[in-house]
Request: fold
Amino acid sequence: MRTIKVNLGKRSYKIIVGTDILKELPKYISALGIGKDAYIITNKFLRIKYGKKMEEALKKSGFSVRFKLVPDTETSKSFNMVNVVLNDIAGYDKRKQIFIISFGGGVIGDLSGIVASIYKRGIPYIQVPTTLLAQVDSSIGGKTAVDLNQGKNLVGTFYQPRLVLSDVELLRTLDLRQLKAGLAEVIKYGIIKDKQLFSYLENHFLDILERKTPAFTFIVRRCSSIKAGIVEKDEKEEKGLRTILNFGHTLGHAIEAAGGFRGYNHGEAVALGILCAALISKKLGMLSDESLLRIESLIRAVGLPRKIIPRNRFLFDEGLQSCGKKLTLSGILKAYYHDKKFKNARNRFVLIQGIGKTKIVEDIPLRIIKEVLRRRI
Amino acid sequence: MRTIKVNLGKRSYKIIVGTDILKELPKYISALGIGKDAYIITNKFLRIKYGKKMEEALKKSGFSVRFKLVPDTETSKSFNMVNVVLNDIAGYDKRKQIFIISFGGGVIGDLSGIVASIYKRGIPYIQVPTTLLAQVDSSIGGKTAVDLNQGKNLVGTFYQPRLVLSDVELLRTLDLRQLKAGLAEVIKYGIIKDKQLFSYLENHFLDILERKTPAFTFIVRRCSSIKAGIVEKDEKEEKGLRTILNFGHTLGHAIEAAGGFRGYNHGEAVALGILCAALISKKLGMLSDESLLRIESLIRAVGLPRKIIPRNRFLFDEGLQSCGKKLTLSGILKAYYHDKKFKNARNRFVLIQGIGKTKIVEDIPLRIIKEVLRRRI
Reply:
């Protein structure tokens, strides 16, 4: 068990990373003094698998417990679901001192964060991430986003949790596709900030895919530290420092969106986005052939996609999956132009000058973006 | 025209108070550099009366303009309406740089503030308050609240505007009931913080009721300064300093709520709440007979209610108005216990030791609260 501190003045909090530490959650919450009524947002699977133990442990420590189950799909990441959960809390909240526990992956974390940030102008919340992606990325930093009927990720807040508890044991039952999706973000951290982490992944990716606890512990700690360090310096993404976390996400989001969010998942799309960003860096003469090759090799080795398949059906680990839309170059470009990070008709990319070294570049010629995407399709 | 600065570091902004200054709005917005697409949230009446001129002036300065009309009722102060407006903005927002102008009273200000705070994790907004209550109070300080189906004022944020422009000319067409409602808050400022303002009101209340511009200018400036000073010291109501602004609001809110929000309006309920809080102060030996009498006299003089009428119909300036619920002592007490400021089963009141001098007191015996309410019913 180890603690990483996120230093944000009055909004500082700890990230606890360890093995089989879920049972210690009540102890950590008690120490925070944030209330006595736990409102746990989770899904049915997690409720069945861990809910009873969690409830017993919390009650033993004097907390009341209420579970709110939400669907384990993107529909939970919507403003409509925010409305549903807020009304549920309000109906339950008679002279209580509620705090929220987000117990799930990125979707549940986003939903919980925004609900906590606006209910009564902000109540405390705790992140207990259960996926690799959530443990290494989305549970840390307080950035939330949910969808409107009119578009994805359009509503959100910056609102820090009071604690992040990452029990890597929870990752052992994660399905392989989700594990790989999380790995895409881990690879991203290596590329933007940590050569050593990148080398570790090259040497130990099999340990991760085989769900070995020490490997999980190593990468979750390392990534949590990197993310914490970046968030500390640029909490609200005002200084451009936090921007480097978007490496691979500009075209990644566009690929995700062009597939109607039912083709590639976030991590898979980010892997493709990483490859595109690396290739753009190479084309602009910023990145060596050798570094590009290392990135491509690692992504191939862990089994993340390297080619955008322009079909509306994909073969994933679980079998053939239908995608809402056929992925085309024009579809990706359209989604890219619609992206909210697109300011003043100038584009803006996080590129790399080597593994561990980023550079923000604006006004990349559309010709180059198209070329790179074409090479991937 | 005079400028009051709200000093909040990076979130600092100006309050401009003056006569016939609405036409200068584009100039002030240009100076802020907050975008080029104005999204104006307002109601039908204001759209018809001022919309065309506003639109022309903004377009002349290079802004695009879109109006979003919302009903001029409490239904606009709801989370459901937040959803409606967010989707409208998202549908409109194709490669735009949108900022919001809140053009209306407190309801429109609350709605605009929360929408601005969560759309894309926060876009700039400007307050152009059109009622006395909004000019002296709700437009300043960034505190917003909207209703859920499950209860009133349960969702909100702290999110500062980038500018407040108070044109007192807009108050000249305000109906008398709304004018008086705003005066209740002005009286509150005098009582909690400014003896001179209180004396001014005693001597000049007729000028205000007769809508004289110099009187409007004086009170809006004075109250804006007081509010700005308090908000500067305790932006997020963490230090208890901002709490004094709740003087008269604890029982005021309960009276408003017990009437189903269709009996006394906010200002009228606050006037009754002020009288109750003054009477409690008197009963606890903190307030002199003379000060209590001055407060009662001023409230009577301006024509605000001094007695809680336990009926379900009220005679207002505009005639007889039906109220949703019959106001009873038990109804008020029930609403009071449900109030979100009620912490750990301890009550908490802002009381006064004289005009201009507050004291926060906890654990007031229920007996005294009941006695005071009974004297008012």
